[in-house]
Specification:
112 residues; mainly alpha; 4 helices; 81% helix
Length: 112
Amino acid sequence: MAFAAVALGAFGAHALKARLSAEMLAVWHTGVEYHMFHALGLLAVGLVTVQLPESILLKSSGWLMLAGILLFSGSLYALALSGERWLGAITPVGGIAFLAAWVLFVVAVLRA
């Protein structure tokens, strides 16, 4: 996921810079930022899971982070490329997945 975030960031900075408006480049950039933050979050989940391998909360946290990347960042990438504003309606669902993932992560760690 981190590799994909870097690749998509580079793609936006180089290939899309001349093709997208400043507003849509900012949308792309937001997608890349959250993608990278949550790729690192997945790494944290994986590292903690080594210590708590049976934690359903941690596993759920990881799946929610992945879903959040796909829904939040993916919808922003699609919006930036297509200009279809309705795709922005998907973004908050990904944001909720991110929030739930972090809550589950914290609860799992505190319970340990």
